[in-house]
Amino acid sequence: MSESPGEDTGHPEQAPGPGPESAILEEQAPKRWSIPGWLEFPLLIIGAFLVAFLVKTFLVQAFYIPSGSMEPTLQVGDRVLVNKVVYRLRPIERGDIIVFDGTGSFISGERVEPEVSPIGQVVRFLGEIVGVAPPSDRDFIKRVIGVGGDRVVCCDADGAITVNGIPLEESEYLYPGNPPSKQNFDVLVPEGRLWVMGDHRSASADSRAHLGDPGGGMVPVDRVIGRAFAIVWPLDRAQFLPIPESFSTVPTTASRAAGGVPEEVPWLAR
Q: Could you give the residue numbers annotated as active site?
């Protein structure tokens, strides 16, 4: 029997095959480049290391507190974050807690890095990122008491340290039971230098302990690594580290007033 044009034969119609035009379009379509699966993980690790290196080198670094010289503000085992860009935005201020390289002020001679294997360098780098590696024996953390041009004296008739003739009220951060200083001194801080002290005055080998050394215990500004602005570990001690109010009463010296103080930039200038 012959089939009529409109009659259903029961056989599905076959779709027309790809013509020459579709083949040409497929050839012209750009091919996507994809990273092989075996290469993705190493690239992620390298990228993470690069980001961590840039942050640690230029922005923020975690430091481990190995001693009690800054108690009660900083306890042994605390991890603090240090802002390494802040002093590009504002000058160092009295009351700042700073991390600095003590070469030439607290330690004589030039800094010589010990030889460490590549694996050891990687391990130390990772430890420094999270603040579990012990700090270099040339890195110190202290509070700035006097800046360039300041006269710092211990002590007045009431036993207080004075800066430019103004007594400091230090009970907010001094270790309980410690006097401001048992050692008398009267120093004029040169420009570009800092007079620093630990909050645990009876357990801190600070500027007072180096008065007879070259530099007179003054820390060069260009040796400052950054400002400790927060405790991040342990969590129950996590807090910011503001400048104590007592330093706001100290008058600005004539030399610093002439140079001017730039306006703070939020966050980074903390």
A: 69, 142
